[in-house]
Amino acid sequence: MKLDCKYAGKCGACKYIKESYEESLKSKLAYVQGLLKDYVKIDEIIGMDDPFNYRNKMHTAFAGAKGKNIISGIFEEGSHKVVATDYCKIEDEESAKLTATIKKLMPGFKMTPYDEDRHTGFLRYTLVRVGKVTGQVMLVLVTGTNMFPGKKNFVKAILKEHPEITTIIWNINDRDTSMVLGKREEVIYGKGFIVDELCGKKFKISAKSFYQINHEQTEKLYGKGIEYANLTGKERVFDAYSGIGTIGIIAAKDAGEVISVELNKDAVADAVVNAKLNDVKNIKFYEDDAGKFMTKMAEKGEKLDVLFMDPPRSGSSEEFIKAIGVLKPKKIVYISCGPESLARDLKGITKLGYKCEKAVAVDMFPFTEHTELCTYLTR
Questions:
Q1: Engineered SS bond to 359: which of 65, 80, 163, 375, CB 3.0-4.6 Å?
Q2: In this structure, are 119 and 179 located in the same domain?
Q3: What residues are labeled active site?
Q4: Are 336 and 309 in contact (CB under 8 A)?
Q5: pTM over 0.85
Q6: What order of strands is seen across the sheet that includes strand 184-189?
Q7: Tens digit of pLDDT for each residue in 308-346?
């Protein structure tokens, strides 16, 4: 299978555009094997049967002038130039349809695209989230100003053509930043969130929530993590970098107790709701730095059986790794979206007396250069 894309080499997202999907999997596996060779042998990479249209989250940039010749697409790598893409073959098809409708409606509502260099104009981005199981659709309109003339009529117009939309959010990002979403937002239709199902559990997803973009592969990745942990129903589990509580809530049914720690206040609030949605009662959520929290646990003489950790691409901090050495969990399941930072962190963790027993690569982002890994360590 090959990704036959007419935008190949323009946006810079799909680094493996010239290779077949099967060849890209071999290349990714060879790369991560090289990085982790000193710690563990990676025997396999889990790919997709159908590696297209997998993204359940897609943000689109807009460009043009005075409502004429409006284009939408992805920023060219390292620039503010928008590469016009009518349809990206790795995004959910619903996202592409919504973008086309918005472009069509913009001139009639005098909505100008935002100019990233001059910091003028109205519509900066759209963000679309799709619940792969529930079919629920979120549309986020990101504007460069705090004024939205004709807001109610625009909502009516977009809903007329896309009644499948579950909620619409207006996000205001008037800062000179590369961040897509601003701090201020207003729900202008629906409840302001969607619900999806992952590994048999329901999860509330808001505009700013972290939620894995590839539903099918996430179930495989988390499934491996649960398999590695080999929970018996008695363990005390710590879920670090827990986001909206996905891993902790999924693990809770096989654990005695789950402690879930996340620094982002909004994510913690969503996680509390998600536990209630799934009637999970043996999990507690804390808004704190995970490393500091573990250090406090150790100072109190508390014990830990299993540590799940799923840090950002930059990996864990030195403070967090030191906290592992202080608390001494029996097992660690490290899920990583950054193989380079994982290799660095494994160097520190293995010095604490841990051995990496197993590892598997999961192709979470087909045709791009990114690969996720699930590793299992024991003392």
A1: 375
A2: yes
A3: 337
A4: no
A5: yes
A6: 82-84, 68-75, 57-65, 123-130, 137-143, 165-172, 184-189
A7: 999 999 999 999 999 999 999 999 999 999 999 999 999
Assign 3-state DSSP to the chain and report helix, strand, coil percentages, each to 5. Answer: 30, 30, 40
How far apart (Å, rounded) are the C-alpha atoms in residues 137 and 127?
A: 11
* Lowest mean pLDDT across 86-100, 130-144, 337-351: 86-100
Q: Say yes or no: 47 and 63 in one domain.
A: no
322 is in which domain, residue-wise?
21-51+214-378
CATH number at residue 331: 3.40.50.150
Output the furthest CA–CA distance in the chain (Å, rounded).
Answer: 66
Q: Return the pLDDT at 65.
A: 55
Distances in Å between the alpha carbon of 231 and those of 119, 131, 140, 172? 53, 29, 39, 44
Give the three-state DSSP class for 286. Answer: strand
One domain, residues 162 and 251? no
Residues 136 and 223 in one domain: no
pLDDT tens profile 36-73:
999 999 988 999 999 999 999 999 999 885 546 888 88
- CA atoms of 357 and 334, how far apart (whole Å): 12
The model's confidence at residue 15, banded by pLDDT at 50, 70 and 90, is confident
Write the CATH number for 108.
2.40.50.1070
